[in-house]
Each structure stands twice: as C-alpha cells, then as structure tokens.
Amino acid sequence: MAGVLDLVYVALALLVAVGGVFTVWWIGRDLDDGIDPTSDLLRAVAVSVFLVLLAWPLVS
Amino acid sequence: MDHGKFTRVTTYFHSLLALDVFLLFFTGYSVMFNDELWWMVEFMGGNAGVLALHRIAGFGLIVLTVFWVTLMLIGPGRRKNFKAILMTLTDAKAFVQDVKFVLGRADERHPNARQFAGYSSDEVPLLSYVGKGVIYIFTVELVLLMVSGLLIWSKVGLAQFFQTKAAATAFVTFHGLLGVVMVMGIMFHIYEHGFHPAFYPVEMKAFVPKSMMPHEEHEEHEGTGIELLSLRPTWKWAVNLAGAAVVIGIVSVLVGSIFDSGYPVPAGLTPGGGPTSILLTIGINIGMFVLLLGVVLSTYGNVLRARYEQQVAGDEHDSEPEAAADGGQPRADE
Q1: Do B251 and A17 lie within an 8 Å CB cutoff?
Q2: Over the stretch B40-61, which tens digit does the pLDDT of each residue have?
Q3: What is the ipTM of this complex?
Q4: Which domains does chain B have, with CATH numbers?
Q5: Among B161, B215, B284, B331, whose Cα sits 20 to 30 Å from the Cα of B182?
Q6: Cβ count within 10 A of residue B295
Q7: Looking at chain B, which residue has its C-alpha nearest residue A30?
C-alpha cells in the first residue's frame, strides 16, 4: 500500500510540474514579447526530461 | 511610479523573518536530506551544530511572531491593517477574472489583482487576493510549524508526555511534511517577487517603506508609469534559469521526501539514509540554491534601501533650511 501511495505521490508531483511547465509555454506561445516560443518549448522539454530521469530510478 | 505598500516596521520585520525562516529551512533540510546535503551538514558543524542552530532559529521565529502579533493587536492602525487582509467578494471576482484573463476571455486583470501593475496605491487595494492568500498560508504554516516544533523540541520529553513512540513520530512527520509544503510557497514567493519583469532583480516594495517612496506626478504623461520602465537585458535568461530551478527544486524535495525518509517524511525518528540518485542529489541542491538566492536578494534589497536612504538624506541636506534660532534642526516627517 505504501509503495502504491509513493507512486501516486511521485506521479502527482511530476504531473503538476511538467503540466505547469507546458501550460506556461502554451499560454505564452502567441505573445508578441520578443521571446522565441520554440526555445521556450525546448526549455520546457529539458526541464521535464530532467524531472522524469530524476524520479524514474526511484519508482521503477 | 507609486509602489509603496509596507511601513518601515514591516520592511524590517519582513527582512528579519526571511533571514530566520531561511536559516530554519537550511538547518531543517540538512537534517531531513542529510545524505544529499552532506556538505551543508558539515558546514554547520555536523548534526549537533545543525540541530542547535535549528532550535535557535526556531526560538527566533517565536520571538518575531510574538512581536508581530503584539504590534498587530495594539500597534497603530491595527483595525485598518486587520481589515486590509480580509478576503472580500471583490477578491473572489478578481480571481474569476484572472482565470478568464489567462484563458484569453478577459481583456485585463481585475483591479484587486493588480499588485504589480504600476497603479498608484489609491487605485488598488493594499493587498491583492494573491497577497492575502500568501499571508494566510504563511501564517497557518508558521503557527503549525512552531507548535509541532515545540512539541518535538525534546524527543525524550515528548515520548514521556505521549507515552508512545508512534505519537512522537507522528509529530516529527507532521513537522517535516509542513516544511516540505512551505518550501514550495517560499520558492514561488522568491520567483514571483525577484523575477517580475518590472522589478527584477528585487522588488523594492519590501525594502523601502512607503513613507520614503517618491510620489512624483508626471502630469504630461498619460498612464500608470509602468510603461516608463525598461527591462534589464539579463532578465530573459535569468527568469528562465530561475524558473527551471524552482520547478526542479520543488519536485526534487517532494520526491526526496518519500525516498529519503518514508512517506511523506520520516518513517522513524532518524530521517535520511534512504535510496538516492545523483539527479535527485542535484535536484535537491538546486532547491537549496533557490533558497540561497532568496537570502542574496533579501540582502541586496537592504543594500539598495541603505543606498536610497543615503541619497534621500543627501538631497535633504542640500536643500535644508537654515537652523532655527534655538539651534535646532527641523525634523524630517516619517
């Protein structure tokens, strides 16, 4: 049971973080603020990959 | 641009509270993640040194809280201050309008959400609903952390008081869980106020009291004044770097709190020592870096305040009238 709760906890943390990062990118992608949306997307992907790699060895 | 909100006492209190809370975080997390933050434990004199510092900082927090509560209860403007932090129906409307604004269904943010938008302090409330929420959350968290911290001050004493080790463990767990929850808020707070494009790298509202804020009127200028500000060239990469560090720091601390010491914090009275990984170690250290950034920005804000006060004092000295007949000097108004 504790193992399942750990998985749910990690999954939620990852979902909120990765979801948040991509939501920010999605909201700002059409803004005319001089920031390239493609580089924003690449940064969001890089952060997400780091987080998944961070958590994966601990839950697998 | 009129951005003054804090009184002089509030600016000092905010800086002292920040320093104390950061010390509590650094020592508390050194206990909790003692394998990932081994260097921090060593730096603060080993486990005994860390725990001693944590208790000293905890005592400091209680002193600061007692001072602040007393000030709020019997200090000047207490009724006005208390009224200013109460949530209103307009705040709820501001929240709904903010959600619509984010989704592109509203043209602008509600006045009650415009804490940063450069309006004068007469046009917007003292605190936006976000600011009120921050006060509520931090107050509840700090009170619960103080109560649970006092209960686990002496584990032997607690075990005698509650008779069971399980009860003592529950309070340690509760204390650690609250610490994990609070660090998320603190990291967002640092990011929100340190990396806003109009105020990067530090929002002076928290450092320069409203009595010293310039209230110059630009009669020939239409607008709130925010459009007169220019964005620092370093903001673009700094905001990305800090944003990534905040997200990674929060997730690492959350994940680490499970695997280092049970669910969600210590399974026993001795935390730490669970499975870890190199990326988790990096992630938790990035989280500590964000907290350190908070200390640096707080210090920088106080340096800027000191410079500004010197500048104002210099200007006043230059335009000072002649001494009075009795040799006295006119007193500067607060």
Answers
A1: yes
A2: 988 898 888 888 899 999 999 9
A3: 0.70
A4: 8-85+127-215+231-317 (1.20.950)
A5: B161
A6: 16
A7: B104
